[in-house]
Amino acid sequence: xxxxxxxxxxxxxxxxxxxxxxxxxxxxxxxxxxxxxxxxxxxxxxxxxxxxxxxxxxxxxxxxxxxxxxxxxxxxxxxxxxxxxxxxxxxxxxxxxxxxxxxxxxxxxxxxxxxxxxxxxxxxxxxxxxxxxxxxxxxxxxxxxxxxxxxxxxxxxxxxxxxxxxxxxxxxxxxxxxxxxxxxxxxxxxxxxxxxxxxxxxxxxxxxxxxxxxxxxxxxxxxxxxxxxxxxxxxxxxxxxxxxxxxxxxxxxxxxxxxxxxxxxxxxxxxxxxxxxxxxxxxxxxxxxxxxxxxxxxxxxxxxxxxxxxxxxxxxxxxxxx
Length: 322
Hints:
The protein is 26% helix and 27% strand. It is built from nine helices and 15 strands.
């Protein structure tokens, strides 16, 4: 194999092997045995004509600011055994399982929400930050604590699962992952020979084989997320009912959203072409203020459920690995 191809392949292996970030470990698995996501439940009763309304917009910057001091994620190696906390009648939940994935013992976690009251409740929350401890010491990868608000509806007696399912094997646990990363950190990709790259690949393969089993201990899985009610959840409900999703990331994805054909959006978009003039993709750069006005709606006052933002923390889901 030519050296450039070897380097590309090795870089891909390195990126996958390091797996210390969110995108390295966050994955759906069709063969999973933990509970699968359920159909999004119906929200509380819709508004009726004549209801009082208030003009609101979905401002992701203001939403994130409102929870900036709430969402605290423990670091690798910390002792961590939090008390469960129900936020605004929303209970964070997480299921877990230990599975074999390509011969690697893998810990999987599937986060979700459930309402503790008698009626469905609409709210904003994250997909769920999953924290894993072994013998009460944090070992989950550092996949970041950035909060991305999503719209959910939780029901009594049923768990609404998010798309925040994560998995990790022994080589990806934070107490050893730096050793795997160090194998690739020693490679100078500009000058490395094919032989040096091959040696690094062999070391990485041997490392993963050495750590293919999860270390013995009592593993506890927690799910954490801010829960937001009030006006932000109400405007999110109205926009979701219109079929607009991914509200928090529209600044970057609006070209592929249901708003893409709106004249107010198209004026900020350009169609990119290849060398032959064939369209390849559409890129939009909608100013923040324009986006805020685009998302402004008259929201029924009945949609607004008062409550200060709170951090929900699940019960620990315990698994023992011998």
